[in-house]
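Quarterly update from the structural biology core.
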Amino acid sequence: MTARHDGLLGGAGWPQQAGAEAASPLWHWIEANHRQNALLWAQEDLARRTTVADAEIAANKRAIDGHNQARNDAIERIDELLLLALGLVDEASARSDAPRSTVQAGARLNSETAGSMIDRLSILSLKLRAMQQQAERRDVDDTHRAASRARHARLQEQRGDLAACLDALLADALAGRAYFKVYRQFKMYNDARFNPALVAEARSRG
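Predicted structure, tokenized:
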């Protein structure tokens, strides 16, 4: 997982251009999530600029909303596919708003889903790349580079811990000792039916 995340970061034209065809639907959505995180990261940087027109920042903010929605959609698809593969969700309801779990009695519920852990691993890979770039800068002093190297090491430790926790969760789920659910995010701000400001705008136009 982490090797694939790191490998994609070095791809020519990526993330603006999608990578090669994924080996399976699950890997497709893992890579889609990673791509959206990379695009989101770039827009977050641009949105902090202070010397450009407000219209450019507004465009960055709208792009952030779109990438964040796509990121969350990918997390949900990852969870659906993993739970189906593990036999822990009713197939007929897996894509619905209320997927039905099919778990053994006594299995513990993990509050964080595997998809959200994979999402966090993706973000950590982006942090590691950015911190490595800081450690290699020639326009800063040694103190900045040393601090960046120390932070890079801590991020490596954090990613290793998280990857081990993901492996343990999937192993326990496969053995019937644990399970997780598909948690729908129901993002309201991008939905004209639920965002009060967008509802008000629609009414004013009507």
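The mean pLDDT is 93.
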